[in-house]
Amino acid sequence: MTNRTIRQRLLLSVSSTTLTALLLCVSAQSQASAPISGLANKTPSADFATTRDDRPHFWESLALEPQNAWSQLRNSFAWQDEQLSAQAQARVDKWIAYYRSSPENIATITERATPWLAWITQQINARNLPGEIALIPFIESSFDPSARSHRGAAGLWQFMPGTGDALGLIRNGQYDGRLDVVASTQAALDYIEMQADQWYEGDLSLSLAAYNAGAGRVNRAVRDAQSYGKSGQYWDLQLPDETMHYVPKLHAIATIIADPERYNVILPDIEIAPAFAKVRLRNTLTLREASKRLDVDQSILAELNPGLLNDTMNPRHGQTLLVPNEANPERMAKLALGDRNAQVATANPTTYRVERGDNLSTIAARHNLTQQHIMRLNAIERPDSLQPGQLLTLSDS
């Protein structure tokens, strides 16, 4: 059981206990206010009504935190309660001070994260990884999917060409999978998990160090630390400066995101539903044509699909076109299957936009699916977490 799962169960337990106590309290107050039979010349109902009018309604007094991408991310944090050594905490505190000294930079970077954060957090949760991993693009690329380094790294996750090739990210004159947010995110998470399992017995801090400096260098540093009688954990290692700062930076920015008011940081509003939907194409399509057929601005499609180097989607290179989640579902289905198959697209939609009053059970029944199937496809943890306007994927294809 992960720290996140344990924390969620504890929160649920505390919430249930608190709710029970509050209900008992309300019950006791109601009984105390109830009329006592046998009292002459009393109008208890009027007295009771006055008492109730003066007292806040019970359900209105339960202030629930509005759910958005930031609260979803905070709920998946797993490192915030870790007790670091004084030396390790000092390394984290150094970067907290650095980041909070320029809150405008945090505002700019988190604003740039708006299209991607909710979806990346869903992918992190689906793999049961610590939510802090979703903030790696903050460090790597400042959440710019088109970012390129002078050393040749590219994309949100800053893959070098050789690493991207090894992970199956296609790269040619028309398409660069390192710039494709969906493809590169899956590759990055695969890579982090693979290295943690292969080399570090699941230790994600060591895997992140290897993500930055290479497994060979980190493995040598682990052996060197152990030869001096140390445990060989990340905080014991002597590594290049960039890698020494890598995990402390991630701890620092996560600490600020966990409590932005404390650090005088204002985060942009980001909805809990991903900002984009995925359309799988069968035929080559230009963004100009997609713009016309979807009635979506071409510049928005270009921003969502930075991997398309000449604004053309070729299914031989990449098949998934990202479109704004407010795009018309029927138009998206027609775009995927072609106008000649419009009837099929309408009868068997691959997406569904949640409407007010919908629940997962009725949506599943309407499309002849199981709730579990929809939850798996959309990385939904709780059936009651649907939000009006949320776009659900209904098919693996």
TrEMBL record:
The keyword Signal applies. This is Transglycosylase SLT domain-containing protein. PROSITE patterns: LYSM (PS51782), TRANSGLYCOSYLASE (PS00922). The keyword Signal applies. SUPFAM superfamilies: LysM domain, Lysozyme-like. It comes from Vreelandella vilamensis. Residues 350-394 form the LysM domain. CDD domains: LysM (cd00118), MltD-like (cd16894). It comes from the Bacteria. SMART domains: LysM (SM00257). Keywords: Signal. Residues 1-32 form the signal peptide. Belongs to the transglycosylase Slt family. Pfam families: LysM, SLT. InterPro entries: LysM (IPR018392), LysM_dom_sf (IPR036779), Lysozyme-like_dom_sf (IPR023346), Transglyc_AS (IPR000189), Transglycosylase_SLT_dom_1 (IPR008258).
